[in-house]
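Support request from a user on the community tier.

User writes: "When I paste my structure tokens into the form, the page sometimes reloads and wipes my input. The last time it worked, I copied everything first. Here is what I submitted, just in case something in the input itself triggers the reload:"
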């Protein structure tokens, strides 16, 4: 979610009172859609990450055990973004809590919002000074198919880019925060531009590099932008003429996001016993198609030996054709190797015999 400060960002993110209606925000409607779907054997978990000055913080830090608000921002533990050997993102020190109802999830969101960094600026009395990512994790067990489906929804509230002149920031912490916000949004735009043109190659014929590691924000959103996911963006603009430049910039940003094309697939984890059974079925199928190795009949071995003898006698024949049966191919390979080794040993023995004869003379 991105756009003009002080418009509809906060409303879309956190309107929660009463039943869900068209006036409610995206978080409330997303959670209502998840919990009202009636999906059996579904477990829902949530996490809340804040990125302030390129450092990640766990907004659920004070919720462990008794759900209390943390006393000072400095008490929030830092979250580190790590990448596994397979390229999967892992956020260390980020708390994940299981929730059973929409109301419980919204309460968690409100507790996390109480720990967010906000400040008053010339344009907004409660301006967010950081980017936040509220993630909903869903795990669905399907006993009859003996597999597990996993999915997650990243609800991202981007801090809007700020023009120092309009915000009247001359120095101090607000100016430093604005610089970090604009820099992270610049890196995000670079990633989006690279993703929209990733099918194209550079002048050297190589695929375009996606600069995810340039900032904490792009690392966290790497799987949401260019991974196994669908991406949607809500852009908020102002109808006021004095903010026309910011509105046009926001629309261009949204246009770039719309050019990202992903091909997501279902994330499913199958039990090991089922995987073993499937592999055995595939192995049996391959054996039926190409034959099994080492199970040749005596008459088949005699026939193959005759083919090999004819091949060795015929100087003009370049290929020994025995079919696609792997057992026959392996048998011929072993026999051919034995014949070649025997010939080499015989030639070496004859050479040694001749050399000893010459020495006696």
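"...and here is what came back when it finally went through:"
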């Amino acid at each position: 979610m991105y756009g003009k400060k002080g418009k509809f960002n906060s409303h879309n993110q956190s309107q929660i009172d009463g039943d869900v209606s068209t006036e409610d925000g995206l978080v409330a409607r997303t959670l209502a859609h998840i919990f009202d779907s009636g999906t059996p054997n579904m477990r829902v978990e949530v996490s809340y990450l804040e990125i302030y000055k390129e450092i990640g913080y766990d907004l659920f830090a004070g919720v462990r055990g008794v759900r209390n608000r943390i006393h000072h921002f400095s008490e929030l533990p830092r979250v580190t973004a790590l990448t596994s050997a397979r390229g999967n993102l892992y956020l260390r020190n980020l708390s994940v809590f299981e929730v059973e109802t929409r109301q419980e999830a919204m309460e968690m969101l409100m507790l996390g919002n109480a720990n967010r960094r906000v400040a008053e600026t010339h344009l907004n009395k409660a301006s967010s000074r950081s980017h936040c990512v509220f993630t909903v994790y869903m795990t669905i067990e399907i006993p009859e198919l003996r597999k597990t489906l996993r999915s997650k929804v990243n609800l991202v509230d981007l801090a809007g880019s700020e023009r120092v002149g309009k915000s009247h920031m001359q120095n101090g912490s607000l100016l430093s925060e604005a610089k970090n916000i604009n820099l992270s949004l610049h890196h995000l735009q670079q990633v989006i531009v690279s993703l929209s043109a990733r099918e194209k190659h550079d002048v050297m014929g190589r695929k375009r590099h996606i600069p995810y590691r340039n900032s904490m924000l792009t690392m966290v959103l790497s799987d949401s932008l260019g991974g196994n996911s669908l991406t949607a963006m809500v852009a908020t603009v102002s109808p006021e003429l004095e903010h026309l430049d910011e509105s046009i910039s926001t629309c261009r940003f949204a246009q770039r996001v719309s050019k990202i094309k992903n091909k997501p697939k279902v994330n499913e984890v199958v039990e090991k016993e089922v995987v073993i059974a499937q592999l055995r079925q595939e192995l049996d199928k391959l054996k039926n198609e190409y034959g099994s190795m080492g199970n040749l009949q005596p008459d088949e071995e005699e026939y193959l030996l005759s083919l090999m003898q004819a091949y060795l006698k015929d100087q003009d024949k370049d290929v020994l054709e025995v079919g696609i049966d792997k057992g026959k191919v392996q048998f011929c390979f072993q026999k051919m190797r034995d014949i070649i080794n025997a010939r080499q040993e015989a030639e070496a023995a004859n050479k040694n015999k001749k050399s000893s004869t010459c020495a006696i003379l």
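Agent notes: The reload is a front-end session timeout and is unrelated to the input. Confidence is low (pLDDT under 50) at residues 6-11, 65-69. The first strand starts at residue 2 and ends at 3. Escalated to web team.
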